[in-house]
Amino acid sequence: MTSTTTAPAHARTEPRAAVVDVRSVTRTFGSVTALDDVTLSVADGELLGLLGPNGAGKTTLLSLVSGLRRPDSGTVRLFGGDPRDPASRIRLGTTPQETGLPEPLRVGEVVDLVARHYPDPMPAGELLERFGLSELVRRQTGSLSGGQKRRLAVALALVGRPRLVLLDEPTTGLDVEARHELWTALRSFHAEGATVVVTSHYLEEIEALAERVVVVGQGRVLADDSLSRVLAAVARRKVLVHLPDDAAVRELARRTGSADPVREGDRLAFLAADSDAFVRELVRSGTEFSGLEVRGASLEEAFITLTKESR
Amino acid sequence: MTATTLTPIAEGRLARAVRLSLVHFRFQFIEILRTPIAVIGNLAFPAIALLFFVVPQAAVAQHPVAATSATAQLAAFAIASTCMFTFGLGVSEERSKPFAPYQRTLPVGALPPLAGRVLNGIVWSYIALVPLVVVGWLGTSAELDPARILPALVTVIGIATPFTLLGLAIGYAMSPKAAVAVVQLTLFPLAFAGGMFMPPEIFPGWLDAMSSFTPTRAVREVFVATAAGTPLDAKFVLVLLGWIVLFATLATIAYRRDEGRNYR
Fold this sequence. Notes:
By secondary structure, chain A is α/β, with parallel strands linked by helices.
């Protein structure tokens, strides 16, 4: 374009600036602590996944970053400014939760309404084409299917050509094919230079999208690392076994270095990072065990272990 | 700085606020227009009131000044109720839907969404006046001097603005259920005390004194004076302006404090 667009080359020579900077943030709702002393920084151009079970504080965190809510304590910066100030949000794109769109308005009108808030919006035709919604431009949003609403909701996040996109559970309620299409659209948007933060309680979604993963549980950051390292940390196997007495349980926990087991029926469930090593130790210990079973642990179970280990 | 530096908004702050106010007005108007059931009750009620309470009373209906005053005070009530119900309650319900918090993440402050609604209050007030004026014209001896049509239409802005703002203050501060009760508990006593149902001339002295400070009385006096051409005490204009400033402040505070649906 013009000779003044040296920003990308310039950016490479300097450390990447923080697009989002959350410091020691606590937020409560009545007696519920949604966020408990959270610190998190997102650099320009990152593709960050926020992973955690429902109620972990992901949505609250996004609502603070997008200026919807204020923290009880701590500071939140968006592009270096206060997210409550409208000017700080000019390069931000978010999406309505669930499939909440103004039902009487047509698809084209909703896009137009949002586009008019930005200095250089994407043309509606191009945007709708990208999300396969071109045919629906004259339809009232109330008449769209759940999947179409979901796609329009995500499309709205990109209308203003944002530098940062916050997506809260973007593919909830979509079928497999639609989910994969949406992931492709988000990856290509990130490839164009945007920073993307996506929340999910599906490990699969985070695996497909994120480069860096932050695991949130009970309002705290449990892990913040590259995708592969977080995958290793949360990929646990559940070992179910019946042991003769408490002394045997303590001995096994000590030898394998695993967290306290959970009782499941008449057996004990250990969550092991390496189940093969666990079983070798079990056999070597000479304990009179019975009913041995090894299976994959659910993400929820992995979260519980991470929560325990971080204490 | 780096690529994350904000691009300055080319247009001025005021120009942008005015432009976005009109954008919000336009899309809110379309939304209301496509769900007409929401406004029909408010549009019909004052005309029905005129038909049942004023038209059958020959003494009022056949006296040009009395009939014009009666029509004008019901018109003022029509505007106040349309503005408070449509915008007060409308907003508290809208707030509980997921699109409302989404809209608040757009780069826009409190002014455009609030101004858009005040503009809608004014426009829908003009629409609400149509059935009332038709009943007043056909069923009573009410007369509107053609020279007073324009001043009366301008006065409508002065009535619609404070009551839309009051409705917005309530709507942004409360849940839909609480807002229904509060709007009813505010509007009807205020309308009565302000002489919108019964002319303040028949009020006892203490009620008349109290009434002078209500926004409804101020609105009624200004509107009746403009429509019927009777003299106007300037203090009512000051009382009205005072309430507009207060309600605008309350609506802005309520909008800024609102954090959407909170869970506990």
